[in-house]
Amino acid sequence: MPKVSFIKIVFFYPILVYQNCMDTRSADCYNNDWSNKVGDCAGNIFLGPFTLNETISRQFDNVRGARFGFNFTIAKIDSWDPNDFLIVFADEIEIGKFWYTPADGVDMCYVQYLDLFAEKQIKFNFPEGRSSMKITLDGNFDEPLSNEGWGAKRFILQILQPCVAFYSDCNFQGEVWTICSGNQTNHARDIPFEFKSILIENGIQVKMRDPRYYGGQTQTYTSSQYCLSSYQFPKYKQNA
Ligand SMILES: [Ca+2]
Ligand SMILES: [Ca+2]
Ligand SMILES: [Ca+2]
Which UniProt keywords are present, listed alphabetically (predicted)? Predict the structure, then answer.
């Protein structure tokens, strides 16, 4: 057995984190985390309508990535105004802003003003040090629901550039050290502390070996490790 230590991570991506309310009348559109308000536009259900400065949001925990994709279908109900928009946030970061013109849409439902469903695909970078995000849809209309409203459905969250997070304490606590797809060669040379827990998304393999641990055998982890007994690399050497 060669006397080397290494960490090697095999990333498979994109990783699907979440999808919800995908079909015309999906049962999971009802009473989910975004909103318990469900509208129906000519048989197509959606979350909403919401208006003025109402928001809907959902918290995602234990997600690690440097880059994400968020897709959803926006519904614009009963508006032909040029000054109304919807902003999408990931935590405090604005990741999308959507405006429509008075000519967008056709009247399909509710009162006689224009309605529209449109798919949106957002790709965005996210700070590597975070392990959760709150996605918020913030609708900006200046008139009440009797006049206009926003809705949304077909939510998909994917990790486009996944990361693995190593922690100095059990249960993902303490200091954090991150390796992301695309940067592992640079980062794996300087391991800063003993690992007590590792956050690993589905589909990622983390391989570690050190002559002093587990008889020098390679350990392969394919799911999160909540409390490792001990794994402190003295120094990194390139995989032999
Ligand atoms: Ca209006
Ligand atoms: Ca309408
Ligand atoms: Ca308006």
Answer: Signal
